[in-house]
Amino acid sequence: KFSKLVETEGVPLPSKTAEKWDQIQDFKARSDDLLICTYPKAGTTWIQEIVDMIHHGGDPWKCDKVPIYQRCPFIELFLPEPIFTGLELADRMPSPRLLKTHLPVHLLPHSFWEQKCKIIYLARNIKDNAVSYFHFCRMNQLTTDPGEWNHFLEDFIAGKCIYGSWSDHVSGWWKAKDRHPILYLFYEDMKEEPAREIRKVAEFLGLELSESVLNQIVLHTEFCSMKVNPMTNYTTLPPSILDQSVSPYLRKGIVGDWKEYFTVAQSEKLDDICAQKLGSSGLIFRTQL
Ligand code: PPS
Predict the structure, then answer these.
(1) What distance in Å separates the CA atoms of residue 209 and residue 217, rounded to the nearest whole number?
(2) What letters, b where the CB count within 10 A reaches 16 and e where it falls short, cover 30-62?
(3) C-beta of 250 in contact with ligand 1 (< 6 A)
(4) Other CB atoms closer than 10 Å to residue 272's CB: what's the count?
(5) Distance between CA atoms of 104 and 87, rounded to whole angstroms?
(6) Cα(114) to centroid of ligand 1, in Å?
(7) DSSP code per residue over 6-41
(8) How many CB atoms lie within 10 A of CB 160?
(9) Measured from the CB, is residue 57 less than 6 Å from ligand 1?
(10) Which of 88, 111, 216, 265 is a Cys-bridge partner for 29, taking CB atoms 3.0 to 4.6 Å apart?
(11) Most informative mutation of 35, 37, 41 for ligand 1 (most atoms within 8 A of CB)
């Protein structure tokens, strides 16, 4: 496989990302950049498409000319030549840019803080996030095989997956929102009432949405719409990168799929982790309620 994991400042990252670490840290954010930040598989593609739709007044024809990963470059991603890298794409892009990262808060390039860029963080409950990550690791041909579910879950809990510990990620960004312009959203809230959450995003961006534009965005970004849209479902990448015959990139898109995978003991273990790591922070996920 293309990329092994290399520990970078305490966080496992793909070796290609680690090799270019200085370049990533020197990234020149612009003050009107909007950064979308998530732990992997929290619903990044969903919020990316929502924000791009908001920027284009809800017009799907304007949005869906190119794949989402080109409209919203993933800054620390390095793919095998001749495919783009995130930094190159971002550098070429006119402002205002929409950018994506999975970096934990302490590894974000400093220029984002210096430029006071707006950031949207989307979090997903630990159990569904783990299941989605497991299937992604199975179909992602660039990183090592995750093995069986039980084995993967142990690695996930130990923070050995790419981008490290889920709880450090969600809680680090949660704390940062008190000091920076960060809109912190939850996948479960978006599933419950997408229109309400889309309105929050528009408000954060200082934009107003008419009812008809809002409805259009809700319809265009529903799971079933995005699943069949080649500009959002990643089928434009070859199977040598993402093998969708193993598992589709937009797999199920639901809350509670974890119940199909977890034993009672595993579920209790993750509840304990959330209680210990998030307990005093005020950060509460639906699975904990
Ligand atoms: S990545 O690679 O980290 O950027 O992947 P990411 O987009 O964060 O996560 C993929 C999961 O998000 C689900 N998804 C959606 N759910 C509901 N509605 C919409 N529109 C939507 N778009 C993406 C996707 O199905 C993956 O979750 P699972 O549980 O695996 O289906």
Answers:
(1) 10
(2) eeebbbbbbbbbbbbbbbbbbbbbbbbebebee
(3) yes
(4) 10
(5) 18
(6) 30
(7) EEETTEEEEHHHHHTHHHHHT----TT-EEEEESTT
(8) 14
(9) no
(10) 111
(11) 41
- Domains of the chain: which residue ranges? 5-288
Predicted confidence pLDDT, tens digits, the chain (289 residues)? 556 889 999 999 998 899 999 999 999 999 999 999 999 999 999 999 999 999 999 999 999 999 999 999 999 998 876 677 899 999 999 999 999 999 999 999 999 999 999 999 999 999 999 999 999 999 999 888 899 999 999 999 999 999 999 999 999 999 999 999 999 999 999 999 999 999 999 999 999 999 999 999 999 999 999 999 999 999 999 999 999 999 999 999 999 999 999 999 999 999 999 999 998 899 999 775 5
> CATH 1.10.3470.10: does it fit domain 5-288?
no
Tokens of 120: 């949207």
| Rg, C-alpha atoms of the chain | 18
CA 256 – ligand 1 centroid, Å:
14
**Which contiguous run of DSSP H or E holds residue 69?**
helix 68-71
Q: What is the C-alpha separation between 217 and 213, in angstroms, rounded? A: 6
